[in-house]
Design goal:
six-stranded parallel β-sheet; TIM Barrel; 509 residues; alpha/beta; nine-stranded mixed β-sheet
């Protein structure tokens, strides 16, 4: 991806700014219940921060000149780490990142699903000169490497092309990439073979990096796609993360234990496989994912997807530049309006979108859809897996997950459904996420760590974003600090932008 995605400014709410935040060079956040990100029980206490770091944790007495922030008994946790985000697309029109900070998120990891800013060295350099409100790290995207290394050819790579992509990957790794990401349901990664992925994952592993994958199939062929992911990790010798783990085929609903058993068996055999997950039963993606074979007029493939995965009633258009009037409507609604079958309507819209994209190459995303295809008990079971951390897979517009993921976990799954304890939920957003990334100085409230913190009310925190209003801010998040600076309070951004580039630790020689 050579440029940041230009989002619809007209659909973005005008940002309200809170009063200018005090310069928290030395402050004590007192009277809080500390959930420290390790999974340990909450404890009463205070936290001292200065120069962007946590100086002390415990029963603290503020100095005469220190700023004292009364937490009023609320919960203080490490800032949440979103291990799978697309919010880098938000940067041009929202460097204050209110969609992220309003959830308590202080670090986002982008470059997901095979698409990354390129070259990463230049992207990071721009952000270091003009910081955003949150910390940012990135993977190097396989599809982006294919664009540059083989002109996005719709076939497996040759040895020479793999060599070129390997060089580009090495450059991104030198800039600070966390490893290789793939989006094997998307062009042109869907035309790659396993050998190509293994070769590139070996480059990442040799340089201390990871492999994260949107697998080839999250529906009827889920188990074989998961096995391929495991095999890649084993052969490459790389830690593996499954992106937004889900069971998206109706015939596989209720098989979460079988999915987790395969992953547990892989771990027992020596493959360091983990997962991230978002707390919704519906996904958002390009219209093209309804054609897993990459043939975008394949009627049978589309019919199968509409039967096995999501239905015409459960498939909504979240973006369609050729005809914005259909945005927010289901495929069933559009088909009824046009007096045509859902399959015929979708095929016609897909053709229209492809033609529009060809005529407007400057637009990186012309269309997207949201599909209901998961069952909540499966989501809860997968989320509870000890090696699953929370992610949003979010962007500013479209799916409610872009604004609501983390408060939804704490409000709906922790408080209401009691799928896990508060400490476990926070751990999955902080300490476990940091562990999966290899980040040592964030994700836990401890002396010496970066002062990324969120103060929230566990009795009221909840998501408010919906399909009808996907940018509604969540409730219950009271204050957010990034590197010791207050970036969000009173449901408004402060306008402060202290974000840093987060890089993995260098591999020991």
């Amino acid at each position: 991806m050579k440029k940041l995605l230009a989002l619809l400014l007209a659909t973005s709410p005008t940002l309200a700014f809170a009063a200018a935040a005090p310069n928290l060079d030395s402050a004590v956040i007192s009277n809080v219940s500390i959930v420290d990100g390790t999974g340990a029980p909450a404890r009463k206490g205070s936290v001292r921060i200065a120069d962007g770091k946590i100086l002390a944790v415990g029963d603290l007495i503020p100095g005469n000149t220190e700023i004292v922030i009364d937490g009023n008994g609320k919960t203080l946790a490490p800032g949440f780490i979103d291990t799978h985000s697309h919010h880098d697309y938000d940067i041009p029109q929202s460097p204050d990142m209110v969609a992220v900070t309003s959830q308590g998120v202080t670090t986002i990891i982008v470059g997901q699903d095979g698409s990354s800013q390129s070259p990463l060295r230049d992207f990071f350099g721009k952000l270091e000169k003009n910081p955003i409100a949150v910390n940012l790290g990135s993977y190097s995207g396989h599809n982006t490497l294919r664009e540059q290394g083989m002109n996005a050819a719709r076939r497996p790579a040759t040895d020479a092309e793999i060599a070129r992509m390997s060089q580009l990957l090495e450059e991104d790794m030198a800039a600070g990439a966390f490893g290789l990401s793939t989006g094997l349901q998307y062009e042109t990664g869907n035309f790659s073979n396993t050998a190509e992925i293994v070769a590139l994952a070996k480059v990442s592993a040799r340089l201390g990096g990871r492999y994260i994958s949107h697998m080839r199939n999250e529906e009827s062929e889920l188990m074989s796609a998961l096995q391929e992911t495991i095999d890649i990790g084993r052969e490459a010798g790389a830690p593996v993360q499954v992106s937004h783990l889900k069971i998206g085929a109706k015939k596989l609903w209720g098989t979460a234990d079988k999915v987790l058993q395969l992953m547990d068996d892989a771990r027992a055999s020596g493959v360091d496989i983990t997962a991230d997950i978002y707390p919704y039963t519906y996904w958002q993606s390009t219209m093209r994912v309804m054609f897993p074979n990459g043939i975008y007029d394949d009627r049978k493939a589309l019919e199968s997807k509409l039967k096995e995965s999501t239905s015409p009633e459960g498939l909504y258009f979240s973006r369609f530049q050729p005809d914005p009037a259909i945005v927010g409507k289901s495929l069933a609604q559009v088909a009824k309006e046009r007096n045509a079958t859902p399959v015929n309507v979708y095929l016609a819209l897909m053709k229209q979108a492809i033609e529009y994209q060809a005529a407007h190459p400057e637009e990186e995303r012309v269309e997207s859809v949201i599909g209901a295809s998961m069952r909540e008990d499966d989501v809860a079971r997968l989320m509870a897996w000890e090696h699953a951390n929370i992610c949003s897979d979010g962007v500013f517009i479209g799916h409610p997950r872009g604004h609501g993921t983390f408060p939804r976990v704490l409000g709906h799954y922790v408080r209401e459904k009691k799928a896990m304890t508060l400490e476990q939920g926070v751990y999955k957003m902080t300490g476990l996420a940091a562990k999966h990334l290899g980040i040592a100085d964030r994700g836990v409230i401890a002396e010496g760590n970066s002062a990324d913190l969120v103060l929230f009310d566990p009795t009221t925190i909840i998501d408010r974003a919906t399909m009808q209003n996907p940018t509604a801010l969540s409730a219950g998040v009271e204050k957010v600090w990034v590197n010791g600076k207050l970036v969000y309070q009173d449901r408004r951004t402060t306008g402060v932008r202290p974000g840093q580039i987060v890089r993995p630790p260098k591999k020991a020689e």
